[in-house]
């Protein structure tokens, strides 16, 4: 029976790792792991089962064998191996300290000679380190993966050893295939031929020996060529290689026998921050076999040092000897390691050379001596001969933002801009190169802005006619800036201004013989209120006699353009100011807006200049049943200049309350922050007594609101229970305060307000020990402010009694003493 992939794998692992020994594994009920997917299993789950396997005493090799026997695909087994490498669970099991004495790159003995493309991927080694070290990014990138290539022909120099499998194909007159494995003694065994010792032989040497043995025993036709023999490598063995020295992850690694030096360097994380990239040593048989310079690969892609490893090899990464720091304007900044005999020229090649804007004539070197620092300035001719010291910091500067041959010409020239300074270039040559002068050139004078040798500025003037006629030639110098002037630069900007009731008021350029009608047409013509019969022109008077006490400072012209047959068009002069007045009989439309509880709310245009409230009320169609007809509020636009802080301060001083308590009352707060004035009106008086002041004249923009009669009283401020209470006629302020829980200890009782629906407010009045409370009407609000510091320090009635008694006693004593 075949289970789902992940469930089957979990069932297998549970029985596999929970049972005490290998003998019990044969009775497992889960027999098919062919559909398992390792990618769907979390690291934590794998770690738990591996711990159980360790407690059960099951070896790693036996675990792999049983997983293969249960049908797990080789690709999934390889994924599991790589997950274990990543989790540091291979070899000695789970090590809580994170140390892994032995790391396996490939599965020993059971590996397929040519596995699938995903079966031998090495996990990316993202190691922390100094990324400024040249070459370190090779071992820190997730995208760079060095791995042994198992899909290649058997290398000719491959050395055979125990556990290698050879595939011997005999074909021709006789055909036979032998799969033989090199045993621990180094022999392979071929039936009817016997043992053949191949340990330590290359694949070519072993081929020659095996062919000779076969031709002298059972395959005589090999000698005549009728039978041929082909030998290749089948399953490969594992080898153990040790990494010591300044590696990020030193230790012993169990890897494939096809692993190269670069494969293992990537697996161990490469050199540490103190490790050398130039003198990595391969020790074989206690002798230095090879010295590796990674810069050959990093700079040229040369893999001559990427040799195959053998069992027992030791890779030693020593400390670096000389390392310098390169900064500034180069293509690749960083830290570079040098070997004996290399100079700055070599470092420059390592970094890719100077950047485009680098200063290439010299560099600055900051060095460390035994006691202090020092600076060395290196010239270009020393680049290939100066020997750098370890910890030297080299800075390559940037070229100056100066030009060695720049000229600038501007003004009345056809092609202004920047030009190159040639040898013996004259000003006439430059003008011709720039296309010549314009027609409006002022030929009597031009100027050259020039710098002296000490960088101080100097001005050189010249006559353009003399320059062009070559009677006064001028040779140009580096950074000269030539200015040619236009005749218009020397004249004032003649303008005409038109304002008032014109469509496009503004300033217009004056031209000779420009007329008043021309400028009116240019400005789009008059607007509707504009009066063409009363146009005023203000003109500047030249040569004013200011010796008089009351002298004329402007000439005023009044123009009537209504009848063109009677008056000629007026020719304007520079700086004339034209005013278009409004027609005397033109009145703009005035509109008010009425809202609230009326039959027809909305905007209303005022018919008469003296329209009053009663006149408007006749046009709105009457009031709705729930309207409050006792009062109305008119909001009229205001031009207040006071700031918000000023308004709060004035309002709180007027009411004798704390400014903070203003924010607790929405009505007062709204009144302070409004940009209009509230006008409270007694509507009954305005309607029934039309000639009283209450029936006021309306203005443009007035907003009239008739409120809804809610028959409620709102109590807010310093009371225990701010609330809304139904209105009761003839009940005083004290009644509503008591209904709201009475005053709090912070209440300023004498400052209590009644704010009426029309916006008016009345305060509690006090005289001696008597208080007069304002009337409360429907839709009023009662507001109790908070005491300010001044009010808090006032003495109570009892305290005043004690003071007065004391004063009386003192006065009595004084009178007795006088008597």
Describe the fold and architecture.
There is one protein chain. This protein has 19 helices and 38 strands. The protein is of the alpha+beta class. The strands form 9 sheets. Strands 1-8-7-11-9-10 form a 6-stranded mixed β-sheet, with no helix packed on it. A 5-stranded mixed β-sheet has the order 13-12-16-14-15, with no helix packed on it. Strands 18-17-21-19-20 form a 5-stranded mixed β-sheet. β12 and β13 (334-338) form a beta hairpin. α1 (5-18) runs parallel beside α2 (43-56).
| Largest sheet: spatial strand order | 1-8-7-11-9-10
- Average predicted local confidence, pLDDT: 79
Structural class: alpha+beta
* Rg for CA atoms: 53 Å
Determine the N-to-C terminus distance: 133 Å
Task: Tell me the number of strands.
Answer: 38
Largest sheet: 6 strands, mixed
Low-confidence stretches: 1-8, 14-30, 88-126
Question: Which terms summarize this structure?
Answer:
extended; 6-stranded mixed beta sheet; single chain; 5-stranded mixed beta sheet; 819 residues; disordered N terminus; 21% helix; alpha+beta
How do the helices and strands line up, and which of them pair or pack?
Elements: H1 5-18, H2 43-56, H3 60-69, H4 74-86, E1 102-104, E2 165-172, E3 176-181, E4 187-190, E5 194-197, H5 203-215, H6 221-224, E6 227-233, E7 238-245, E8 251-256, H7 261-267, E9 280-284, E10 287-292, H8 294-300, E11 314-317, E12 322-328, E13 334-338, H9 344-350, E14 362-368, E15 373-379, E16 393-396, E17 406-411, E18 417-420, H10 427-433, E19 441-451, E20 457-462, H11 464-468, E21 481-486, E22 495-500, E23 506-509, H12 516-522, E24 530-540, E25 554-559, E26 577-582, E27 591-596, E28 602-605, H13 613-617, E29 631-637, H14 644-655, H15 666-673, E30 676-682, H16 683-688, E31 703-706, E32 712-717, E33 723-726, H17 733-739, E34 753-755, E35 761-763, E36 765-767, E37 770-772, E38 781-784, H18 789-792, H19 797-818
Parallel strand pairs: 1-8, 7-11, 12-16, 17-21, 22-26, 27-31, 32-38
Antiparallel strand pairs: 2-3, 2-6, 4-5, 7-8, 9-10, 9-11, 12-13, 14-15, 14-16, 17-18, 19-20, 19-21, 22-23, 24-25, 24-26, 27-28, 29-30, 29-31, 32-33, 34-35, 34-38, 36-37
């Amino acid at each position: 029976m075949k289970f789902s992939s992940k469930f089957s794998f979990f069932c297998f692992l549970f029985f596999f790792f929970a049972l005490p020994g290998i003998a019990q594994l044969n009775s497992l009920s889960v027999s098919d792991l062919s559909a398992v997917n390792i990618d769907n299993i979390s690291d934590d789950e794998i770690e738990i089962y591996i711990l159980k396997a360790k407690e059960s005493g099951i070896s790693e090799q036996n675990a792999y064998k049983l997983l293969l026997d249960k049908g797990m695909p080789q690709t999934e087994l390889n994924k599991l191996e790589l997950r274990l490498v990543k989790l540091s669970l291979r070899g000695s099991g789970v090590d809580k300290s994170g140390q892994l004495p032995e790391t396996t790159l490939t599965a020993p003995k059971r590996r397929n000679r040519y596995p699938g493309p995903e079966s031998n991927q090495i996990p990316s080694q993202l190691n922390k380190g100094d990324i400024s070290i040249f070459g370190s990014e090779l071992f820190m990138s997730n995208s760079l993966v060095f791995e042994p290539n198992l899909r290649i022909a058997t290398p000719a120099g491959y050395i055979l050893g125990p556990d290698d499998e050879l595939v011997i194909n005999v074909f021709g007159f006789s055909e036979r295939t032998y799969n033989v494995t090199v045993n621990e003694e180094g022999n392979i065994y071929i039936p009817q031929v016997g043992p053949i010792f191949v340990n330590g032989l290359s694949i070519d040497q072993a081929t020659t020996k095996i062919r000779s043995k076969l031709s002298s025993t059972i395959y005589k036709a090999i000698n005549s060529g009728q039978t041929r023999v082909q030998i290749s490598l089948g399953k490969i063995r594992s080898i153990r290689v040790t990494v010591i020295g300044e590696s990020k992850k030193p230790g012993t690694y169990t890897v494939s026998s096809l692993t190269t030096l670069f494969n293992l360097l990537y697996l161990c994380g490469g050199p540490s921050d103190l490790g050398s990239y130039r003198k990595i040593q391969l020790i074989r048989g206690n002798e230095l076999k090879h010295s590796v310079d990674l810069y050959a690969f990093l700079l040229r892609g040369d893999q001559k040092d990427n040799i195959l490893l053998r069992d027992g090899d030791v890779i030693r990464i020593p400390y670096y000897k000389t390392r310098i720091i390169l900064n500034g304007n180069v293509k690749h900044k960083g830290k570079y390691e040098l070997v004996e005999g290399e100079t700055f020229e070599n470092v420059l090649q390592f970094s890719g050379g100077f950047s485009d804007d680098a200063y290439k004539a010299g560099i600055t070197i900051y060095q460390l001596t035994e006691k202090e620092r020092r600076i060395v300035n290196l010239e270009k001719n020393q680049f290939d001969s100066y020997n750098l010291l370890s910890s030297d910091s080299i800075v390559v500067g940037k070229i100056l933002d100066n030009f060695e041959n720049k000229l600038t010409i501007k003004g009345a020239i056809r092609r202004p801009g920047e030009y190159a300074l040639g040898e013996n270039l004259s000003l006439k040559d430059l003008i011709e190169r720039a296309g010549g002068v314009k027609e409006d050139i002022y030929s009597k004078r031009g100027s050259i802005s020039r710098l002296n040798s000490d960088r101080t500025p100097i001005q050189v003037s010249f006559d353009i006619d003399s320059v062009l006629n070559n009677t006064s030639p001028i040779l140009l110098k580096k950074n000269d800036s030539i200015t040619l002037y236009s005749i218009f630069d020397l004249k004032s900007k003649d303008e005409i201004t038109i304002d008032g009731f014109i469509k496009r008021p503004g300033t217009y350029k004056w031209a000779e013989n420009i007329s008043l009608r021309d400028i009116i047409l240019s400005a789009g013509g008059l607007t509707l209120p504009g009066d063409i019969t009363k146009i005023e022109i203000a003109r500047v008077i030249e040569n004013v006699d200011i010796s008089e006490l009351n002298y004329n400072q402007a000439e005023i012209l009044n123009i009537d353009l209504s009848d063109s047959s009677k008056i000629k068009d007026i020719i304007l002069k520079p700086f004339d100011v034209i005013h278009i007045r409004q027609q005397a009989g033109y009145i703009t439309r005035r509109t008010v807006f009425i809202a609230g509880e009326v039959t027809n709310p909305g905007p209303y245009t005022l018919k008469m200049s003296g329209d009053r409230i009663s006149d408007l009320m006749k046009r709105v169609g009457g009031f709705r049943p729930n309207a409050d007809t006792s009062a109305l509020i008119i909001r009229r636009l205001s031009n207040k200049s006071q700031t918000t802080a000023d308004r709060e301060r004035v309002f709180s001083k007027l009411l004798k309350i704390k400014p903070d308590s203003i924010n607790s009352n929405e009505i007062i707060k709204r009144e302070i922050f409004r940009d209009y004035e509230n006008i409270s009106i007694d509507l009954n008086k305005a309607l029934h007594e039309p000639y009283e002041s209450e029936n006021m004249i309306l203005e443009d923009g007035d907003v009239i609101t008739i409120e809804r009669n809610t028959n409620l009283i709102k109590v807010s401020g310093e009371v225990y229970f701010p609330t809304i209470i139904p209105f009761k006629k003839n009940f005083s302020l004290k009644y509503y305060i008591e209904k709201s829980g009475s005053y709090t200890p912070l209440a300023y009782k004498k400052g209590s307000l009644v704010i009426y629906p029309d916006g008016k407010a009345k305060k509690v009045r006090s005289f001696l020990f008597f208080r007069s409370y304002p009337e409360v009407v429907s839709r009023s609000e009662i507001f109790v402010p908070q005491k300010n510091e001044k009010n808090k320090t006032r003495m109570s009635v009892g305290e005043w009694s004690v003071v007065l008694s004391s004063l009386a006693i003192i006065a009595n004593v004084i009178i007795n003493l006088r008597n």
